[in-house]
Design a protein that fits this description.
CATH topology: Spore Coat Polysaccharide Biosynthesis Protein SpsA, Chain A
Number of helices: 12
Largest sheet: 10 strands, mixed
Number of domains: 1
Structural class: alpha/beta
Distance between the termini: 40 Å
Order of helices and strands: EHEHEHEEHEEHEHHEHHHHEH
């Protein structure tokens, strides 16, 4: 029996609404050549298990209340995956439209199945506004410095297993960034799709979580990127300043954020193009 093209791995905890959103996105895909691996924690008993039970026909593997944390759950998910490519679509995340997997499968075949296969992302802010986010070009060094978002990256499973990668379960928020950097460091082929892969909700990140991200980011720079103390310290200045501004001068933080977005060509408030247009442009360049 052939392996499925994709392993969709979903981690969800006490969020039936978010899980239902992700589930709808998975169920709507026109390409059905995938397995869906769900790692669920339902300590609040607020309905997640009921939704899962009603939709078990779409779930290939379920681990319920078995993980010890987010990155342990992600490791469980990759251990179970059998697809050619793995993508993480956690509770609350969604694929951009119903043809993402169909287009991605076609592009993977046309580009000789690259190990690091990724696209762009659409961010949704607290006001429901969608902002297009342009990911880094398909270059090893660029992707080490600015990895693709987890939800827009398809890991070639064969390469992932060859590298022996695992999420660092001692971390709480940045282990996914560390692993993506390691994957880019060791990948042998890269391809950026001219597609919007996912929609990402940018709300809900607490101040405490931001400070933890700074600390774990420093650890990644020292241990994975192999930066010197001075390089790592200088690199962390911007997130430290941004976190302090967000905590203590939120109005100034909002002004600075608007200026940054205005200067950064990777973030745009322009309307998001239809993926069908992007796919046709990719396959039929002028």
């Amino acid at each position: 029996m052939n392996n499925p093209a994709f392993s969709i791995i979903t981690i969800t905890k006490d969020d039936p609404g978010g899980f239902e959103k992700t589930m709808k996105s998975v169920q709507e895909q026109t390409c059905r050549d995938f397995e869906w691996i769900v790692i669920a924690t339902d300590t609040a008993h607020n309905g997640t298990l009921d939704i899962i039970r009603q939709n078990m026909h779409d779930i290939t593997f379920l681990a319920y209340n078995q993980d010890t944390g987010l990155y342990n759950a992600m490791n469980i998910g990759t251990d179970q995956a059998t697809g050619d490519y793995m993508i993480f679509l956690n509770g609350g995340d969604s694929l951009f439209d119903e043809k993402v997997l169909e287009y991605t499968k076609d592009i993977a075949q046309r580009t000789d199945y690259p190990e690091y296969l990724y696209g762009n992302q659409a961010n949704v802010d607290e006001n429901g506004r969608v902002k297009f986010y342009e990911t880094a070009p398909a270059d090893k060094e660029a992707l080490i410095q600015r990895p693709a978002s987890h939800q827009s990256l398809f890991f070639k499973r064969e390469a992932y297993e060859r590298m022996g990668l695992r999420y660092d379960e001692s971390m709480k928020i940045a282990a996914d960034t560390g692993l993506k950097i390691q994957f880019a460091q060791n990948a042998q082929s890269f391809h950026k799709m001219d597609l919007i892969v996912n929609t990402f909700d940018t709300t809900g990140i607490s101040n405490a979580r931001s400070w933890r991200q700074v600390r774990e980011g420093y650890k990644i720079r020292r241990t994975i990127r192999k930066q010197s103390f001075s390089q790592a310290a200088l690199s962390m200045c911007r997130p430290i300043i941004a976190t302090a501004m967000k905590n203590y001068t939120p109005a100034l933080f909002e002004v600075a954020k608007k200026v940054y977005h205005g200067l950064n060509p990777n973030i745009s408030t322009a309307s998001v193009e239809n993926n069908a247009i992007l796919f046709n442009r990719h396959n039929n360049p002028q």
